[in-house]
């Protein structure tokens, strides 16, 4: 199946809420490496960088369109994940 990254991001807020809930439950205060399996357009992957800014983060997805969008979007703070 080929994903449309723009259509996928139409529902970004709905996808972000469960991710924020899970991030709030993680008891780890430091991380050196994080892997986001099926990272999609990386809107959730970016949330992982905020509580663990020193971590090396690897996003993995099998859809080239999603990875292409990720590679062309600059990293910036989302201001919404805390640890």
Helix content: 40-55%
What is the SS-derived class? alpha+beta
Give, in order, the helices and strands. HHEHEH
Strand content: 5-15%
Give the quaternary arrangement of the chains. single chain
Mean pLDDT: 78
Q: What is the radius of gyration computed over CA atoms, rounded to a whole number of angstroms?
A: 13 Å
Largest sheet, described in full? Answer: 2 strands, parallel
Number of helical runs? 4
List the uncertain runs: 77-83
- Alpha-carbon distance between the two ends: 35 Å
Q: Strand sequence of the main sheet, in spatial order?
A: 1-2
Identify the overall geometry: globular
Q: Report the strand count.
A: 2
Characterization of the model:
There is one protein chain. This protein has 83 residues and is of the alpha+beta class. It has a domain at 31-75. 41% of the residues lie in helices and 12% in strands. It is built from 4 helices and 2 strands. The chain has helices at residues 5-10, 12-25, 45-49, 64-72, and strands at 33-37, 56-60. Strand 1 (33-37), helix 3 and strand 2 form a beta-alpha-beta unit. It is globular and about 35 Å long. It starts with a helix and ends in an 11-residue tail after the last helix. The model is unreliable at 77-83 (pLDDT under 50).
Topology:
Elements: H1 5-10, H2 12-25, E1 33-37, H3 45-49, E2 56-60, H4 64-72
Parallel strand pairs: 1-2
Give me a quick take on this structure:
By secondary structure, the chain is α+β, with helices and mostly antiparallel strands.
